[in-house]
Amino acid sequence: MDHMSKVPYASAIGSLMYDMVCTRLDIAHAVGVVQVWKLQGYVDADFAGDIDSRNSTTGLVFTLGGTAISWTSNLQKIVTLSTTKAEYIIATKARKEMIWLHGFLYELGKKQKMGILHSDSQSAIFLAKNSAFHSKSKHIQTKYHFICYLVEDKLVILEKICGSKNPTDMLTKGVTIEKLKLCAASIGLLALRTGG
């Protein structure tokens, strides 16, 4: 146990996850217990995906201990001019939901540290972390810049996630059955059995 005190938490969880998935299915419960009560969010947007209105389809999923507890998929109410803006808007919406979930969990006696919000849009993450607005972002309505202040005050950690590992893909676009199973499994949803 003395050795483990020197290993960063994320590295230890990653090693346990690798062991669980690749070699030791019998430790799945132990891994779940170690990472319980960790609130994480995932966001994605399908730029101008609606062929009639050109609105973007957005999705967000929140997990607690690796299991989905809140999710939504819908058309944005405005037409965006870029993928960055569509992703930026859903990140702001997701952070508002995260604030509510954080308060709800606190009332249940499950105090949370700062939540992590994952996005596959590097440009939206950069825009949220760059508090100096410039000519390329001044057209974005002020209400969507809320996330910049949260990132600046360290009330949210906004991290990049590889697009192929983003579970919200299943909420924003048509995916193959293999991708659907991967997305569902990554947020703790069980695959339905087919056939007899």
Q: Would you identify the regions where 5 or more consecutive residues have pLDDT less than 50? A: none
CATH topology of the largest domain: Nucleotidyltransferase, domain 5
Can you give the mean pLDDT? 79
Annotated CATH homologous superfamily of the largest domain = Ribonuclease H-like superfamily/Ribonuclease H
Largest sheet: 5 strands, mixed
Strand fraction band? 15-25%
N-end to C-end Cα span = 47 Å
How many domains, as an integer?
2
Strand order of the largest sheet: 3-2-1-4-5
How many H/I helices?
7
Which word captures the global form? globular
SSE string, helix = H, strand = E? Answer: HHEEEHEHHEHH
**CATH C-level of the largest domain:** Alpha Beta
What structural class is derived from the secondary structure elements?
alpha/beta
Strand element count: 5
Q: Give the name of the CATH architecture of the largest domain.
A: 2-Layer Sandwich
Write down the Rg.
18 Å
Helix content: 25-40%
Give a verbal description of the structure:
- The structure is a single chain.
- The longest helix is centred in the middle third of the chain and has 25 residues, at 83-107.
- The radius of gyration is 18 Å and the shape is globular.
- A 5-stranded mixed beta sheet has the order 3-2-1-4-5.
- The model has no long low-confidence stretch (mean pLDDT 79).
- It is built from 7 helices and 5 strands.
- The protein folds into 2 domains: 1-35, no CATH class; 38-186, 2-Layer Sandwich (Nucleotidyltransferase, domain 5), CATH 3.30.420.10.
- It has helices spanning 9-23, 28-34, 83-107, 122-129, 146-152, 169-172, 177-186, and strands at residues 39-46, 57-64, 67-75, 116-119, 157-160.
